[in-house]
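Onboarding guide, step 5: your first structure request.
Type a short instruction followed by the sequence, for example:

Predict the 3D structure of this protein.
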Amino acid sequence: MNSISTKIKLVANIGEFNNSNGFGVEHYAYNIYSHLANQQKVNVEKFEINPLFNIKTASNLFLGELKFSYLSMNSPNMDSDIIHFLTHIPFTNNKIFGIKLGNKLTIATAHEFGIITDAKVRKIAYNELVPNPTSLKKYFTFKLFQRIILSALQADILLPNSTQTMYEALKLGYPKNRIFLVNHGIEETFLKPLTQKENKIFTVGYIGGLRKRKNVSFAINAMKYINYVKINFEIFGKGKEYLNLKEGS
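The system replies with structure tokens like these:
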């Protein structure tokens, strides 16, 4: 007798299931799919959203996501019990004027809301994502990016990947009973039992993107004030802030 399996569709933008890119979303999407694909009683498939045209722009990707939301969500290809959006995608819950279309359970992983809730983070992100602030086109591109970030709040269930993101979602009004904190995991191969070191060097590690709004420089400067123990701060990641962090460390 065949057991009934739960059908799960994992949704991300094109290329985001490729962990060789080395970014957080790509590693997250790849690991979620690889883990669920080996589970019993789960039928998991991945779905990549393509831009509407073969042009890599924010507005073009937005149009592709819009097409996905209104056409693909109710197509036979999306015949699933659960649809999990692994990245921020507009109209996550396939809503028109606040009315949900279809009865699929939608889950969204939330990676950040800081560019919405925090004025300082918003300014930093704007300067990072929009190099020329005098350009009206780029101003609206940033507003579009903010709209995409907010889309996760439309999901039936929200999975923030950090405590900060969870509090930001609550601040934006997401129901507390439908939010579940799921931090990024670490493979057991990276974990070792703590041992007493004779040299008394305290090692701290950071793994993630090296962008200004990640504020890794804050940790570097804070550690300079700790003089009662020697600290080794190891940074793993890549991004535009790499050289600045290297000079400031």
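Each response can be followed by summary notes, for example: The CA atoms of residues 161 and 183 lie 5 Å apart.
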